[in-house]
Design a protein that fits this description.
Elements: H1 3-14, H2 19-23, H3 26-44, H4 52-64, H5 67-73, E1 78-81, E2 84-87, H6 97-103
Antiparallel strand pairs: 1-2
């Protein structure tokens, strides 16, 4: 099965609030699934395995995001409509909250050799005082 078919069957069987995906036409569904894949592989890296469930939640998230969220992604911080002010924090909303709970946030780490740190006391060559 293709990724699109896997995502569609996962959504049909497992996700209750999928109205926005169910109401979309076939072309829009395929675009959402492909875009969800691209966003997740860009965020988590191309070597990490992304499960179908994560792609499914991300596709629904992309279809249901509000216009104000799109504006926030473009840098808008405040919107006023008929006297009502909405302030948008500088939070990255490009990844679905369900996906973040499943896969976690992307974190980085420096990979240093033990000799390049202060924790090299086990090696007598580096344990000498200057």
């Amino acid at each position: 099965m293709s990724v699109f078919e896997d995502v569609q069957s996962f959504i049909d069987e497992n996700i209750l609030h999928s109205d926005v995906f169910d109401a979309a036409d076939e072309k829009k569904k395929q675009k959402a699934v492909k875009n969800a894949e691209n966003v997740l592989y860009t965020y988590y890296g191309s070597t990490r395995f992304i499960p179908v469930s994560a792609i499914s939640y991300q596709a629904i998230w992309l279809l249901q995001i509000d216009d104000s969220v799109r504006r926030a992604d473009q840098g808008v911080t405040n919107v006023n409509v008929m006297g009502i002010s909405i302030s948008m924090l500088q939070i990255d909303r490009s990844i679905s909250p369900q996906v973040l709970r499943m896969l976690g946030r992307r974190v980085g780490r420096y990979d240093l050799e033990i000799e390049d740190t202060n924790r090299h006391r086990t090696n007598p060559k580096y344990g000498q005082r200057l």
